[in-house]
Amino acid sequence: MNEGSNGYLLEATDVSKQYGAVVALRSASLQVRPGEVHALMGANGAGKSTLVKILTGGVRPDSGVIRVRGAERKVHSPAEARRGGLVSVYQEPALIPDLDIGSNLRLTKTPIEPFRHWIHALGMDDLDQTRMARDLPLASLRIIDLARALAIEPDVLMLDEITAALPADLTESVLEVVNGLRGGERSTVFISHRMTEIASVCDRATVLREGKTVGVVDVGDNRSADRIVELMLGEIADDVAEMAEHPASSHREESERPRLEMRNLAADARLRDVSLEVHPGEVVGVVALEGQGQDELFDILSGSERRAAGELLVNGQQVDFRHPADAIRKGIVFVPADRAEALLMQRPVRDNIALPFSAPLRRWGHIRARQERPKVDNAIDRLQIDIRAQREVRFLSGGNQQKVTIARWVATGLETMLCFDPTRGIDIRTKHQIYPLLRELAASGAAVLLYTSELSEIQLACDRAIVIFGGKVVAEIAASDADETTLLRAAHNLSSDAPLPEEVVAVSVSDDSGAGDGGTSRQ
Amino acid sequence: MTTTLDTPTKSTGSPGVTLSLLVRRNTWTLGLVGILALLLVITRMIQPNYGPAGIQGLAISVLPLALAAVAQTCAVLARGIDLSIGSMMALTSVVSATLMEERSEGFAVVVVIGVLVLGLALGAINGALIVFTRVPDIVVTLAMLFVWAGAALLVLNTPGGGSAAWLRRLTLGPVFIDWVPKAAVLLAVVVAVFWIPIRRSRLGLSLYAVGSDPLAAFRSGVSVTGTKIFSYVLAGLFSALGGLSLTATTGIGTPVPGPYTLMSVAAVVLGGVSLAGGTGGVLGPVIAVVILSLLRTDMTFLNVDTNLATVVQGLILVGVVMVGSLIQMRRRET
Predict the structure, then answer these.
(1) What is the domain count for chain B?
(2) Burial class (CB in 10 A: 0-12, 13-18, 19+), B82
(3) Measured between CB atoms, does A130 come within 8 Å of chain B?
(4) Residue B114: what are its φ and ψ, rounded to 5°?
(5) How far does B221 lie from chain A, in Å, by closest CA?
(6) Is the CB of residue A476 less than 8 Å away from at least one CB of chain B?
(7) Which domains does chain A have, with CATH numbers?
(8) What is the pLDDT of residues A402-456, one digit of tens each?
(9) Is the pTM of this model over 0.80?
(10) What is the domain extent for residue B71?
(11) Residues of chain B neighbouring A510 (CB-CB closer than 8 A)
């Protein structure tokens, strides 16, 4: 096989892409050697996904050269890229919801035997091909999508955040499979935010920052992770390091009446009995494995779901929310993990932030733009939202979108903020802007309830953490003691001395995938 | 450590499992069959002498409507909608009637083939306009509704023309026994001949894929633009078949479009095809057409005022779709 003069299997040089006034890629380059697993790193909005989409024909670049085995290629569609040996597994599985798995495989002309082989290798047995893709949990769809791509045996396989939203055991088998791809003729481009994954399966890493390739790092030596973070963050790296050394301190004043008080709250089968007080000035973390009732808890508090039993008090007053508007009137605002649930994607940033002012139609007539402008500007400044050219929200990166969601409530004024995994899929840089913001809100008298799937966030942002297991509060841990191991044990409802057996992890994980079939509201 | 995909049924092709799968996938259609059977019993009760003649008339009135419904299904499956179906039927009908008038039986064969090609072309124009101008489907086909209707009046400004005798014989009268009308058999054959091969091909799969999730389809390597055009070409083809059936059953060409477009949308909805695309098939809408026509007949038997009958028909449409959706939601939750 002729691999061109320089020996790269895939080579992208000076690729750029602009969406209107927003520059997604300035000059990105990527060189992948045959047989390597190559990490593509960068903060959210750095342009990783755009680069992958360009390489696999999903998006057309404005300029730049793409070479495969030394020969220049122009791909106009995923179908064409696939024929040329470039296949991507995107963040959203490319399976047709209304077709069963068998038809989905036929649609992409997937060879069935290799597919079965990879499905087993990825740790998923008993795949019923007559199931509709719509009825399967996200984790299964991702595995199927990956197995389908592997079965085609592409020259370059691109995995965009493949391990996000996967339970621990599947993540492990995915990493094993990716590791097994090393050393052959073919290459893999691996995108992930998780540094440990990069360290365990990747040979080299290309780092993007603000649409530019800023460096290529040989993974392997001890300094590589630091080097990657340095490149990703640029000048703010020092601040982040400083942040991490100062865990949140408590501002709580015991004498005050709780802002939010839950007494034996219950709903459906998932949420059984939760009692909790959240005081003004504190950030309370909620830790739970998937599907332990935290979704229902946040839905009840934000007014999207009715409680079945128990009491809810705001500032000492009994409340009964029938609609999110009721909760908002009581100063309780909700920041969901999925930005699309909170934002008007096709409206500009400004409109999104101003929406809560204009939503209560107390008086008819036009919206008073002059009144809202200073508030909106203030919120944008405070959150350092990148509002290049006042574009529609859908053109912003995930991190910036989440900032808009928070900013609208900052602009409106809030008493209690409910954050449900607000940093999901957000890069380190933005995350480290969100934690101080939550602290700041608390310092100015707000009560914050933060559910997070990243246990390391608890010590960075919270005063204390409560742990929910099986719909009940099973532990309360002060931030100073809330290291990841302690939290993980508590989340599995284990006493602090007991070992953490792997079977327990597996059981809880398979519970999740079973529960996912029921079609909960936040899938 | 393995995560299993829990399912009681495994994908081994045992007959019992396949049957239960068929039932599970086609509950809506089976429900419609049930409603139809019930309606036939009711018809027989209010009009004891409803027999072969009644069925015969029903089949003839259903034929063009059913073909329109199938045409609409093709567009809707790929997340489109075709408002020009009635006009395309009128245009193809007058073209065929004009060309066949006082010509030989053999020449009529050429005309039929030519009109089908015309249907393909009309559909292709609709589809290409939608894909290349990026104007929404509903706007383009609304515009083309006027264009094709105008063209039909240009061809023939009053009802007229003629039909070959063999074409007429294809639709009129029974097959073998009095209870089986030729029109019904013709409908079944035509739909089977065109639809089944499509449904089984990768093209048919693409139709569902594009309707279900265009982005995922694109990323799966499906040509979204091509599939979209194809769906309108199919709609054009079935509209042409519908136009020919009008000529055949009436013996003349009528340039003013009948109520076929909106009835086809109603049949599609009642037939269990999601207007959001990607789900359903052609059988449901065809049965829905029979149900809607039979309802009309029953109300005539009962001496219900025609205007009131239209109101009732609309209410039944909403009611059935609402109840059906509720039942489906319930089933999903359990």
Answers:
(1) 1
(2) buried
(3) yes
(4) -60, -40
(5) 4
(6) no
(7) 10-244 (3.40.50.300), 256-331+415-426+438-523 (3.40.50.300), 341-413 (no CATH)
(8) 888 888 887 777 889 999 888 876 777 777 788 888 888 888 888 999 998 777 7
(9) no
(10) 54-328
(11) 3-4
